[in-house]
Amino acid sequence: MGKPSMSSEECLSWLDLSGSPSPQCSPMGGQSVWASQPPDFTEERGGGTVMVATNMDGRTLFDGAVPAGDEVVSGIVTELLVARAIGGLGEDVKSKLNKRILFTFFSSETSGSLGSTKFFTDTLTPFTCPLPTQTTSDNATKPLPYDPNFPTCLNPLYPSLRFTSLPNTVPTTISLSSLGSGGSTLYSLCYNGPDPSNQSQIQSILSSLSVPPGSATALPPSPLDTLISMRPTSATGCVITSHPSSPDPLVGTIYDTPSRISLQNLASAATKIARAVVADAVVGVDGMTVPSASSYATSNVPAVTADDSEISKLLACFGSQGSACEAVKDARAREDSRNALRTGYGIGYMRPMGEPPNYGGGVYTSGNEQPWIYLDGEMIAATGDGDKFESEGGFVTLQPSELSAALKGLLSYYLQDGGQGTSELCGTDGDCGGGGGG
């Protein structure tokens, strides 16, 4: 790390005696993962967006030992189960949704909320790329584009501009926090705008679904907290937790192991959150009010039960198996094949989850999720010459972590049809779920 008196910019832009870059520190960061329902971005949803959000990383005093059972694993498993429930809805229900349902897994949240801050910065402010590629599926050249349906921005470097198709309206946000280790009752800790006497639509819906308000006087650190800091007058949402008055005391320690997680808690959380987002998305449709929308969601979103084999499979994958999990192996193979088709090279190194997984934050480098351009036999961080990139076969790539690759694949798989129609994960960003890193 750099000297205490250094700013981040000074630390990262350090030059040696010859004037060459010689950084004294490395930035934290990684690729967040998101996907939406419906996946077709041309489909309008006039009611806005409701977002389910959780963290991809945790923390302890020991960087190499971060089990993050209730801090990370319970949220990951629950959100994937919610995506599975939403993806498995009948077309009659999906056609009524007046909001886009967005699923987000944020990287580096324990390092200054980096993932959620970048995501909201990119999506809430109209983004114009000064140098996009012309290579898309409508203008197919070799090598293949990073994303077959959206261009790349070459400077600043964004492998895919898919995120620009998301509405730049402030989403109603449901953040997941410590769901697995508390009592069997879930609680909501809500922010309803600048006036604390107001009750938001999502809080009313959660109350009607037996998720009462908790007694904590402050929200725990969460993506919702990030959104409030950026849009205090328009943000609304709730943190869902099994700890109503104070944080789980074992979170942030090596004792926060996945063995503490209750399958019943996760099943209950997935059921209520899936019903809450559907209810929020149908209020106003066919004259539905909060009570009738909640009843509609309860009738049309099947309950997730603790004996559902998918819960046990996901908990084993993200709680104990890590790199040995079949979903992780499938994701590695898919990314390797996809990168080889696009660039002629396999993906190579992917930051491993470990066995058991370690959820400590990662350093953002070309070997760990930082995108880069290959041009003229060199790896570069950006280019100002789009014509040269197009004419000389430049390509953009990145090396995802095993965790982000697995989450992207599972989101796509579940959002297609609840994972019922196919035994294989989707092959590209454009298949199935419409998601990506960023």
How does this structure look, described?
- The protein is of the alpha/beta class and 438 residues long.
- It folds into 2 domains: 1-30, no CATH class; 31-437, no CATH class.
- The protein is 32% helix and 12% strand.
- Strands 7-8-6-2-3-1-12 form a 7-stranded mixed β-sheet, with helices on both faces. The chain has a 3-stranded antiparallel β-sheet with strand order 10-9-11, covered by helices on one side.
- β9 (372-375) and β10 form a beta hairpin.
- α2 packs parallel to α12 (402-417) and α10 (326-343) crosses α12 (402-417).
- The longest helix is centred in the middle third of the chain and has 20 residues, at 263-282.
- The radius of gyration is 21 Å and the shape is globular.
- It starts with 7 loop residues before the first helix and ends with a strand.
- Mean pLDDT is 87; it is low at 422-438.
